[in-house]
Amino acid sequence: MLQVKLIVTGDDFGYCPRRNQGIVDCFLAGAVSNVSLLVNGSAAADAAKLARRYNIPIGLHANLSEGSPVCEVLKTNSSLLNQDGFFHGKMGFRTALSKGLLNMSEVKQELKAQVELFHELTGHLPPHMDGHQHVHVLPEVRHVFAEVLEEYGIKYTRVPIEPGLHNCDWIAPSLMDFYLGVEEDSFNTVDVFTRHGIRWPDIYIGLSTMGKNMSVSNIWSAIDTAIVEVTSKAPSPTDQMAQSRTVTIELMVHPGYPSVPPVGGCGEGPDDFSQSWERLHELQTLIKPELQSHYKTRNIQLCSFKDL
């Protein structure tokens, strides 16, 4: 029987105390098996303490798009900042990048500063590192990101290419356009990450199941679609997965109790998504017993990047 190792990663750990509490509650309920820390989050130090207290596997959620940089010299007069002195934002970062306005040496400086701060907060280097709002797969950034991972010996990342995404007709067109952009950037990143010896799970899920679109049936369906797609590919004799019959999946999730302003965020206060009911909806869906029992019947073992 095919064995599936599922990493359920709670993103944005450190964003605010209520996010931290929600992610910890999910971990203790066996619904989240791994977390990704925003070191520039307002509750990052608290998150690191919680991870130590409950032995939660933790990696780095590199942030170049929301809030303030952690590198002191970049907090003023940097290409990474807008006129208000904060990062450019999810779409603003992409616009600035496409116009050639971002200095890649500053991107590298900030990424390294975030790795160093992660080490300071947790006492170890991150076993995995991904990008907040998927900035790590963007043109130019992907090269710098890969160099930083290789320099620090960080083996794992996330490549957000989700099988079956194109068939998800419940996703709003504007959001689907953004997701398809992320997918295209991810396809163009595969060779770069491979050249630097960086690895990632066989399958990524999380775009089609985000926020209000999360349901037990959507998660089941996304996992099943992904497994069928991966196992149907003709394996070569040297194919590692074919020999071991183990498929690895990362499910990206954003559970939490809604942020209450002005507490939270990464320097600018909490954003709309963090304050919405969708965070709580994800939390309540992930801890449902029928989801847990589905994992058991399908021989799906929850784990973290350290277990790969």
TrEMBL record:
Which keywords annotate this record?
Carbohydrate metabolism, Hydrolase, Magnesium, Metal-binding
Q: Which InterPro entries match?
A: Glyco_hydro/deAcase_b/a-brl, YdjC-like
Q: Which SUPFAM superfamilies match?
A: Glycoside hydrolase/deacetylase
User: Which co-factor is required?
Assistant: Mg(2+)
Q: What Gene3D superfamilies does its record include?
A: Glycoside hydrolase/deacetylase (3.20.20.370)
GO MF annotations in UniProt? hydrolase activity; metal ion binding
Cross-referenced PANTHER family, in alphabetical order?
CARBOHYDRATE DEACETYLASE, YDJC DEACETYLASE FAMILY MEMBER
The record's comment on protein family reads:
Belongs to the YdjC deacetylase family.
Q: What does this protein do?
A: Probably catalyzes the deacetylation of acetylated carbohydrates an important step in the degradation of oligosaccharides.
Q: What is this protein called?
A: Carbohydrate deacetylase
Q: The organism's lineage?
A: Eukaryota, Metazoa, Chordata, Craniata, Vertebrata
